[in-house]
Amino acid sequence: MNNNKIVVGGVEKFSAVDFPGTLSAVVFMQGCPWKCPFCHNASIRRILQENDFSWEKFVDFLHRRVGRLDAVTFSGGEPLVQDCLSDAIKQVKDLGFKIGLHTGGYRPEHLAKVLPLVDWVGLDIKAPFNEKKYQSIIGVNHLKKVQKSLDLLLEWGGDFECRTTCDPRFLSIDDLWLIAQTIKEKGVKKYFLQKYRPVDSDKISTDDMCEALVSDTDLNSYLQAQFIDFAVRK
After folding, report:
1. pLDDT by residue for the chain (234 residues), tens digit each?
2. For residue 56, which phi and psi values (nearest 5 degrees)?
């Protein structure tokens, strides 16, 4: 992948939830190599597809928000798809904004390049660390990339969290126990469960099913005890 142009899939001008404790704008970077069935941003999945959003216009917007917003969060899609991510981050950082990054852990060699530039990272853990299980959700055998990305974040020592979207079609309570135990043993300090909101194509999941997966008393008590920061996000 050799692309020297930043391609934006969308923008949220103000968010209080995409960078913990910080007011940020969110830029959704175009493209993702995975096909997670619970993704609400599937419309920007096609890698580097041109659209009506302009990086330059987003930067112009940021110039007008200096002193009024604290940070910019790079989300997606998958930001690490884009070769020029570090250039984009530097451009924003030079304006004085903190930098947040949402990633699934794709392309760890690129994550290593941008980590010195960011202030906070949210790493999505899709499933237990089993190749077959992980591939059944993301569509490709990229578990080793995810594991390497997690190792990089732990070595980095900066502020990051892991989180799991709890889609009852693909995950069980036992799966969540296994994820939590695995990442705790590796040294993760912050872990969050995210209640799944059914996508339009999902004709199976009910709200009761989605709620049950994030409301297990025993699991939540364990997570509360094991991580310095844990919550269920609904």
Report:
1. 445 689 999 999 999 999 999 999 999 999 999 999 999 999 999 987 878 889 999 999 999 999 999 999 999 999 999 999 999 999 999 999 999 999 999 999 999 999 999 999 999 999 999 999 999 999 999 999 999 999 999 999 999 999 999 999 999 999 999 999 999 999 999 999 999 999 999 999 999 999 999 999 999 999 999 999 999 999
2. -60, -40
- Collapsing DSSP to helix, strand or coil, 228 comes out as coil
The Cα 10–Cα 208 span in angstroms is 31
Give the residue from 210, 208, 183 showing the smallest Cα distance to 198: 210
Is the omega angle on the peptide bond into residue 77 within 30 degrees of 0, that is, cis? yes
Backbone angles phi, psi at 124, to 5 degrees: -80, 125
**Beta strands across the sheet bearing 71-76:** 8-15, 24-29, 71-76, 98-103, 120-124, 159-166, 190-195, 229-233
The token pair at 27 is 């830029």
pTM for this predicted structure: 0.96
